[in-house]
Design brief:
CATH architecture of the largest domain: 3-Layer(aba) Sandwich
Number of domains: 3
Domain HTH lacI-type: 17-71
Shape: elongated
Number of helices: 13
Radius of gyration: 25 Å
Order of helices and strands: HHHHEHEHEHEEHEHEHEHEHEHE
Oligomer: single chain
Keywords: DNA-binding, Transcription, Transcription regulation
Largest sheet: 6 strands, parallel
Organism: Devosia riboflavina
Protein name: LacI family transcriptional regulator
Strand order of the largest sheet: 2-1-3-4-5-11
Helix content: 40-55%
Number of strands: 11
Pfam family, one: Peripla_BP_3
Length: 347
Amino acid sequence: MPSAGRSKRGVKPSGKPTLKTIAQMTGLAVTTISRALNNAPELAQETRDRVQRIAAEIGYLPDRAALRLKTGRTNVISLVLEPDEQIYGFGTSIVTGITESLRDTSYHLVITPLFRNVQPIEPIRHIVRNRMADGVIFSKSETFDERIRFLIDNDFPFVSHGRSHWPEAHPFVDFDNEDYAYHATLRLAAQGCKKVSIVLPDSALTYTEHLKTGIERGAREAGIAYEFAADVNLNSATDAIRNYVIKRSKRPDSPDGYICASEVSALAILGGLAEAGHTVGRTAHVVTKQSSSMFMQFQPAAETVAEDFVEAGRRLGQILLRRIAGETEGLSHLAKPDFHWSEPVAS
C-alpha cells in the first residue's frame, strides 16, 4: 500500500473524477483537497501544487451546479464578444489579459457569443436571470447603454470596456480617445495638413463622442478645418471605406489628413489615398491607433499610437474581481495614449 500523502501513481480512476478521487490518490482529506484547489493560502504551496497537478492529470472538473447551490457562486466570469471583435486580435488580446488576471484564483473565463441578429441586452439578461456567472464583461459601451442600466439596477457585478453617461458611477476600463484625437489632430496640423477627417464608429457608442470632441478641440486650436466622413463608419466594409476615400479625394476641398480609430479602417484609408494618387507621408498624412504588431508590416508611412488590449483585459479582470469581492470605489481605469512622434515629414 502507498504511504499516506503520496498519490497512487499509475492507478487510473474510474468514472468521473471527484474530490474523493483525488483524496484517495493523495491520502489527504477531502476538505484539504477542496482548499488546495481553491489556493487556500494557509496550505503549503507544495501541497497546493501537487493537488492541482493531479486534478489536471485525471481531468477533474468542479461540479458547478453543486457549487452554486452550496455557495451561491459559480466561479465563472462571462465575457460577451461579438464575432467581429476577433478582427485583428481584439478578442484574443482581451481574453489573454483577462485570463492572466484570473490566474491563481478559483475563477474561470467563459465566452458568451453575441450574434448579429441578437440584441446586446439579451445575453446579459440570460446570464443574470439564470445566475450563469458571478460577473460579466462586455465592450462597445453606448452613451446610455441599457446593459449597464440593467446591471446597475440588478446589483450584478460587471465591468464594461468603455463608458456611459448614466449618472451612477460604474466599473469600466477605457482608452482616452478624446486625448488621442486631440493630439493626432495637432500632429497632422504640424505636418501641414489643412483639413483632417475621420471614419467614426457607430454614433451610439460613447467613444464616438470622445473622438469628435478631441478633433473639434484640436482643429480649433490649430486653426484648421475638419470633417467627419459621411456615408461610412467603422462597421462599413473595407471596400466601402476605401471607395469613399477615393471619391472624396477627387472632390474640391478634400482632406489631406486622416485620423483612424482602428487598424482595419486605416488600411482601407491608406489604400484609398494611394489609389487617388497620394503619397502617404508627403501629400497626405495618416495617424492611427495600433493594437497589433502586424499593422506596421503593411504601412510604415502612417504614424501610430499604441492601444494595448492585453493590458485592458488585465484591468477588466482585476476590476471585476474587486467588484465581486464587494468593493464599490475606484473601479475604473482610463488608459492615456503615449505619443512618440517622429520628426515632421516635409510635404
